[in-house]
Protein backbone atom coordinates (compact mmCIF):
# COMPACT_ATOMS: atom_id res chain seq x y z
CA UNK A 1 0.00 0.00 0.00
CA UNK A 2 1.31 3.42 -0.99
CA UNK A 3 0.63 5.97 1.74
CA UNK A 4 1.43 9.61 2.24
CA UNK A 5 1.18 11.63 5.42
CA UNK A 6 -0.12 15.17 5.68
CA UNK A 7 0.87 16.60 9.07
CA UNK A 8 -0.22 20.10 9.98
CA UNK A 9 -1.79 22.45 12.44
CA UNK A 10 -5.04 22.65 10.43
CA UNK A 11 -6.23 25.69 12.34
CA UNK A 12 -8.73 25.32 10.68
CA UNK A 13 -8.51 22.85 7.83
CA UNK A 14 -9.70 24.41 4.55
CA UNK A 15 -10.31 23.79 0.85
CA UNK A 16 -6.63 24.14 -0.15
CA UNK A 17 -5.64 21.34 2.27
CA UNK A 18 -8.26 19.04 0.72
CA UNK A 19 -7.30 19.98 -2.85
CA UNK A 20 -3.62 19.28 -2.10
CA UNK A 21 -4.48 15.84 -0.73
CA UNK A 22 -6.78 15.05 -3.67
CA UNK A 23 -4.06 16.16 -6.10
CA UNK A 24 -1.50 13.94 -4.35
CA UNK A 25 -3.84 10.96 -4.54
CA UNK A 26 -4.41 11.27 -8.27
CA UNK A 27 -1.04 12.63 -9.45
CA UNK A 28 1.23 10.41 -7.35
CA UNK A 29 -1.14 7.43 -7.18
CA UNK A 30 -1.22 7.05 -3.41
CA UNK A 31 -3.69 4.60 -1.92
CA UNK A 32 -4.17 6.67 1.21
CA UNK A 33 -3.46 10.13 2.62
CA UNK A 34 -3.16 10.24 6.40
CA UNK A 35 -3.91 13.63 7.94
CA UNK A 36 -2.06 14.17 11.21
CA UNK A 37 -3.23 17.19 13.19
CA UNK A 38 -0.51 18.47 15.53
CA UNK A 39 -1.42 18.54 19.20
CA UNK A 40 0.98 21.38 20.02
CA UNK A 41 3.09 22.54 17.06
CA UNK A 42 6.62 23.32 18.29
CA UNK A 43 7.10 26.30 15.95
CA UNK A 44 3.74 28.02 16.46
CA UNK A 45 1.91 29.55 19.37
CA UNK A 46 -1.52 28.00 19.51
CA UNK A 47 -4.27 27.64 22.07
CA UNK A 48 -3.93 24.17 23.61
CA UNK A 49 -7.69 24.08 24.12
CA UNK A 50 -8.15 24.04 20.33
CA UNK A 51 -6.37 20.69 19.87
CA UNK A 52 -9.53 18.59 20.16
CA UNK A 53 -11.48 21.02 17.97
CA UNK A 54 -8.81 21.00 15.25
CA UNK A 55 -8.81 17.19 15.34
CA UNK A 56 -12.61 17.10 15.06
CA UNK A 57 -12.62 19.60 12.19
CA UNK A 58 -10.14 17.52 10.19
CA UNK A 59 -12.25 14.43 10.83
CA UNK A 60 -15.33 16.21 9.49
CA UNK A 61 -13.51 17.67 6.48
CA UNK A 62 -12.15 14.35 5.23
CA UNK A 63 -15.14 12.15 6.07
CA UNK A 64 -16.45 11.95 2.50
CA UNK A 65 -13.25 10.54 0.97
CA UNK A 66 -12.54 6.87 1.79
CA UNK A 67 -8.87 7.34 0.80
CA UNK A 68 -8.41 9.98 3.50
CA UNK A 69 -7.70 8.92 7.05
CA UNK A 70 -6.98 10.82 10.25
CA UNK A 71 -4.34 9.78 12.76
CA UNK A 72 -4.53 10.64 16.44
CA UNK A 73 -0.85 9.78 16.92
CA UNK A 74 0.13 13.36 17.86
CA UNK A 75 -3.15 14.10 19.61
CA UNK A 76 -2.70 11.12 21.95
CA UNK A 77 0.89 12.15 22.77
CA UNK A 78 -0.47 15.38 24.33
CA UNK A 79 2.79 17.23 24.08
CA UNK A 80 4.75 19.07 21.45
CA UNK A 81 4.33 17.34 18.12
CA UNK A 82 7.79 16.57 16.79
CA UNK A 83 7.63 15.33 13.20
CA UNK A 84 10.56 12.93 13.55
CA UNK A 85 8.82 11.01 16.34
CA UNK A 86 5.58 10.88 14.35
CA UNK A 87 7.36 9.72 11.19
CA UNK A 88 9.14 6.91 13.06
CA UNK A 89 5.83 5.71 14.55
CA UNK A 90 4.09 5.77 11.16
CA UNK A 91 6.97 3.90 9.50
CA UNK A 92 6.78 1.24 12.20
CA UNK A 93 2.97 0.98 12.15
CA UNK A 94 2.70 0.63 8.35
CA UNK A 95 5.99 -1.28 7.95
CA UNK A 96 7.28 1.24 5.40
CA UNK A 97 10.41 -0.06 3.68
CA UNK A 98 11.37 3.07 1.72
CA UNK A 99 11.06 6.73 2.54
CA UNK A 100 7.72 7.93 3.88
CA UNK A 101 5.87 10.34 1.55
CA UNK A 102 5.10 13.65 3.24
CA UNK A 103 2.98 16.58 1.99
CA UNK A 104 4.29 20.01 2.98
CA UNK A 105 3.98 23.64 1.86
CA UNK A 106 6.94 25.70 0.69
CA UNK A 107 6.56 27.97 3.73
CA UNK A 108 7.17 25.09 6.15
CA UNK A 109 9.75 23.36 3.95
CA UNK A 110 11.79 26.54 3.71
CA UNK A 111 12.52 26.24 7.46
CA UNK A 112 12.91 22.46 7.61
CA UNK A 113 16.51 22.72 8.88
CA UNK A 114 15.16 24.27 12.09
CA UNK A 115 12.94 21.29 12.84
CA UNK A 116 13.74 18.85 15.64
CA UNK A 117 16.54 16.51 14.48
CA UNK A 118 16.04 17.46 10.83
CA UNK A 119 19.25 15.64 9.85
CA UNK A 120 17.66 12.38 10.96
CA UNK A 121 14.23 13.26 9.55
CA UNK A 122 15.54 13.91 6.05
CA UNK A 123 16.84 10.33 5.85
CA UNK A 124 13.34 8.93 6.42
CA UNK A 125 11.11 11.17 4.30
CA UNK A 126 10.35 12.01 0.68
CA UNK A 127 8.84 15.49 0.76
CA UNK A 128 6.19 16.51 -1.74
CA UNK A 129 6.29 20.28 -1.65
CA UNK A 130 3.30 22.42 -2.59
CA UNK A 131 3.70 26.10 -3.49
CA UNK A 132 2.48 28.63 -0.95
CA UNK A 133 3.31 31.50 -3.29
CA UNK A 134 6.88 31.91 -2.11
CA UNK A 135 10.04 30.90 -3.94
CA UNK A 136 11.82 27.87 -2.52
CA UNK A 137 15.56 27.88 -1.91
CA UNK A 138 17.11 24.68 -3.33
CA UNK A 139 17.79 21.98 -0.74
CA UNK A 140 20.19 19.57 -2.40
CA UNK A 141 20.55 17.27 0.61
CA UNK A 142 16.78 16.64 1.00
CA UNK A 143 14.73 14.11 -0.94
CA UNK A 144 11.89 16.22 -2.34
CA UNK A 145 9.94 17.16 -5.41
CA UNK A 146 7.71 20.09 -6.20
CA UNK A 147 4.06 19.14 -6.76
CA UNK A 148 2.94 20.65 -10.07
CA UNK A 149 -0.29 22.01 -8.63
CA UNK A 150 -1.29 25.64 -9.07
CA UNK A 151 -1.00 27.70 -5.88
CA UNK A 152 -4.29 28.21 -4.04
CA UNK A 153 -4.17 31.36 -1.93
CA UNK A 154 -6.11 30.47 1.21
CA UNK A 155 -5.01 31.51 4.67
CA UNK A 156 -6.07 29.76 7.88
CA UNK A 157 -5.30 33.03 9.68
CA UNK A 158 -7.85 34.87 7.52
CA UNK A 159 -10.42 32.08 7.90
CA UNK A 160 -10.16 32.33 11.69
CA UNK A 161 -11.04 36.02 11.41
CA UNK A 162 -13.74 35.56 8.80
CA UNK A 163 -14.93 32.11 7.68
CA UNK A 164 -15.87 32.30 3.98
CA UNK A 165 -16.38 30.11 0.92
CA UNK A 166 -12.89 28.63 1.37
CA UNK A 167 -14.06 27.12 4.65
CA UNK A 168 -15.45 23.59 4.30
CA UNK A 169 -19.18 23.72 5.06
CA UNK A 170 -19.06 21.08 7.83
CA UNK A 171 -16.07 22.89 9.37
CA UNK A 172 -17.79 26.28 9.17
CA UNK A 173 -20.80 24.79 10.99
CA UNK A 174 -18.52 23.23 13.61
CA UNK A 175 -16.77 26.58 14.18
CA UNK A 176 -20.13 28.34 14.60
CA UNK A 177 -21.64 25.64 16.86
CA UNK A 178 -18.59 25.63 19.14
CA UNK A 179 -18.03 29.39 19.18
CA UNK A 180 -14.44 29.08 17.93
CA UNK A 181 -12.09 31.88 16.83
CA UNK A 182 -14.05 34.72 18.39
CA UNK A 183 -11.87 37.68 19.27
Report how far apart the termini are. 44 Å
What CATH architecture label applies?
3-Layer(aba) Sandwich
Question: Which strand order do you get reading across the main beta sheet?
Answer: 3-2-1-4-5-6
> Overall mean pLDDT score?
91
Count of individual helical segments: 8
Question: How many strands appear in the DSSP assignment?
Answer: 6
Q: From the helix content, strand content and strand pairing, which structural class follows? A: alpha/beta
Shape: globular
The CATH superfamily bears the name HUPs
Number of domains: 1
Description:
The chain has 183 residues and is an alpha/beta fold. The chain has one domain (3-177): Rossmann fold (3-Layer(aba) Sandwich), CATH 3.40.50. The chain contains 8 helices and 6 strands; from the N terminus they run βαβαβααβααββαα. Strand 2 (32-37), helix 2 (51-62) and strand 3 form a beta-alpha-beta unit. Helix 2 runs antiparallel to helix 8. The protein is globular and about 45 Å long.
Amino acid sequence: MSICIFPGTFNPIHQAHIKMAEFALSYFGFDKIIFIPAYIPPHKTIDRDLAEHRFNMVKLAISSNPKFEISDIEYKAEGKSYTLITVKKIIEKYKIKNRLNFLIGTDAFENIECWYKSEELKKLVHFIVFSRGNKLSPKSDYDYEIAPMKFIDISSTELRKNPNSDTIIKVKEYIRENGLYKN
